[in-house]
Structures are given as C-alpha cells and as structure tokens.
UniProtKB/TrEMBL annotation:
It comes from the Bacteria. Residues 3-168 form the ABC-2 type transporter transmembrane domain. This is ABC-2 type transport system permease protein. InterPro entries: ABC-2_transporter, ABC2_TM. The lineage of its organism: Bacteria, Bacillati, Actinomycetota, Actinomycetes, Pseudonocardiales. GO terms for cellular component: membrane.
Amino acid sequence: MLAIARGELIQIFRNRLVLLTSIILPIGFSAYLIYQHGVFEKVGGIGFIATMMLFVVTGIGFYTSVVTTLASRRQNLFLKRLRSTAVSDRGIIAGLVLPLAAIAVVQVAVILTVLGTVVGKPANVPMLIVAVLLTVLMMLGLGLATAGVTNSPEHAQVTTLPLTMITISVAVWVGITGTEELQVLKRLLPGGAASELVVGAWEGTASWSHVLPALGPLFAWIFVSISLASRMFRWEPRR
C-alpha cells in the first residue's frame, strides 16, 4: 500500500490537472479569502470564511482529484494490474487516495492556522478538528462513489460538478444564515452539518451538547457514501 501511495504522490506532482485542482486552486482561493477577510467577515463572520476554505479544499481539491485519479487509473488498466498483486482491494484504494487525503488535511491545517494567526484562533479547536476529519471522510466516500459512474478523467469534469456545487452552496448557505431556521433541512444536506460544526467551533457559539445532533447526519452521509462506493465502484472500464 505504501509503495502505491509513494508512486501516486509522484504522479500528483507530474499531472498538471490534478496539481491545479488539488493544490494550486484551493490555496489561491483561500489566500484571497484571508486577504479579503474584512469583507467576508461582514457577510457571515470568520466561521463562514473557515467553512468556505474547508469546502474549497475538500469539495474542489480533494473530491474532484479522487474521482479524476481513480477514473484515470481504471481507464489505463492500472487498477486491473494492481489487483493481480498481493495487495488487497482496500489496500489498493487506500494507497491511491492516501496522498490526496494527506494533502487535503495538511492544506486545511495550514490554511486555517494562517487564518487564525490573522484574525484570532478558533474558540474550540477539538471541535474544529473533528469537523475537518469527518468532512474529509465524507468527501472521500462521495469521491469513491462518484468514481464508479465516471468513465474517464474528462468525464470527471461532468460527474463531480453536481456534488461540488451542492456542498459548496450548502456551506455558503449555512455559513451565512446559521441553522436557527430550517435546522433539520440544513443538517441533512451534504455539507450542512459539517458547516455548522465549523462555524460553531470557530466562533464559540455552540457547545458539544448543541452540535451533537449534527454529528448524526454527518456520520449518515459517510455511511451512505461508502456503502454506495462499495456497490458502484468498478475496477475495469465498461466494454
């Protein structure tokens, strides 16, 4: 698995498209949010800015790159060749997505640290860490499921668009308006519960007892996405 992950990490820095979507674009957008934090703070607060950063990294960078990478490896029959080795199916998938997940987590950690240095640290760091890790898991599951219906890296530009737009739109909605109104709907939508956790953690407006119900929908999305991935994922191209 580690050998696969090491090789995949090298490929990331050789592939301009993956490099752009997984690293350059999220960092550039996050840098802009930090630079203009005074403007965006008036719209929805610092928690809103942190939420946007998280979902730009995980929704555009991580999720899209997972789908593109797996579709590419399937198309060139690399997945099929890996299955002939001693590595288990789970080990193969883990090796392919581990570098992308590590890059996403490191990016979020660095970006939020810079934001905290500029505007002040978050009120509840443990809650923020939980929100970040669960969001990465959710987007990973959704990426694996989406890869099952994606025929090629080019096709990934189409198949990833709906969920990318939905999760970022929900994050903006929750980040600006909160969850006092339409709470159940906002929590049930993908990204809604995670956005509530991030805003509450950064601004100190929510205790663990308050956000505990939001963990249910978040875990549900993780379970559903991984279940869909196990059913929909394909190791070989359609003939």
